Amino acid sequence: MHIPQATTDTLCLEPFEPALEAALLPSDGYDVSRWLYVPNTYSEYRYILGTRGKNPLICIGINPSTAAPDALDPTLKSVERIAHANGYDSFLMFNVYAQRATRPDDMELACNTLLHEENRKAFRYLLSQSPSPAVWAAWGNIIEKRDYLMDCMQDFALDGQAVGARWFTAGALLKSGHPHHPLYLKSTTALLPFDIDAYLNR
């Protein structure tokens, strides 16, 4: 379990760009030729966790839990399986909000604007890793836990639109209209086109 010890505005946040530079250097803790982990040490927040490849699938969840390189949690294991089953050689896990919390109910009540802006830089970096980025919306009903999460998604949708990102959902949408969370999906679940603009403007 990861229960936040404090709100993120009390932390000394490492900006995304220097955190990325550090993550690209050799590490004693994991194989950097296989993993992208930003920041590259376990902390109260995480921008990116994923594997390296030429054809990555960007997966967007709500917020990070305890996963780290070589220690994926069940959700990330499911993400990896579904990415491979749909023809991608790697996955890049990103989250609408970067604060770690195993239980979404433990997420902070107010959005930390600075954390969101650095997280947005992380998303733009992920989008830059492919000439035609593929983005899997995978947050389930959890996006309703905090009002600011949908506002954050509006920004990510704009970033994706700027580079012609292709959006997908795994299987049909939930009755609520939200895309499925990966955890309980079959590894063979097909990715289907997802109209992110219609979703955000419904």
Q: Please, could you describe this protein's structure?
A:
The chain has a 7-stranded mixed sheet, sandwiched between helices. The mean pLDDT is 97. The longest helix is centred in the last third of the chain and has 16 residues, at 147-162. It has helices at residues 16-23, 74-85, 113-127, 147-162, 196-200; strands at 35-38, 48-51, 56-61, 90-95, 134-137, 166-170, 191-193. Helix 3 (113-127) packs parallel to helix 4. It has 202 residues and is an alpha/beta fold. Helix content is 28%, strand content 16%.
Mind summarizing the main beta sheet?
7 strands, mixed
User: In which range does the helix fraction lie?
Assistant: 25-40%
The CA-CA distance between the termini, in Å, is 35 Å
What Rg do the Cα atoms give?
16 Å
Arithmetic mean pLDDT: 97
Count the helices. How many?
A: 5
The arrangement of helices and strands along the chain is: HEEEHEHEHEEH
> Would you tell me the structural class of the helices and strands?
alpha/beta
> What overall geometry do the principal axes of the alpha carbons give?
globular
Uncertain segments = none
* Residue fraction in strands: 15-25%
- Order of strands, main sheet, comes to 1-2-4-3-5-6-7
Q: How many DSSP-defined strands?
A: 7
Draw up the topology in text.
Elements: H1 16-23, E1 35-38, E2 48-51, E3 56-61, H2 74-85, E4 90-95, H3 113-127, E5 134-137, H4 147-162, E6 166-170, E7 191-193, H5 196-200
Parallel strand pairs: 3-4, 3-5, 5-6
Antiparallel strand pairs: 1-2, 2-4, 6-7
Helix pairs in contact: 3-4
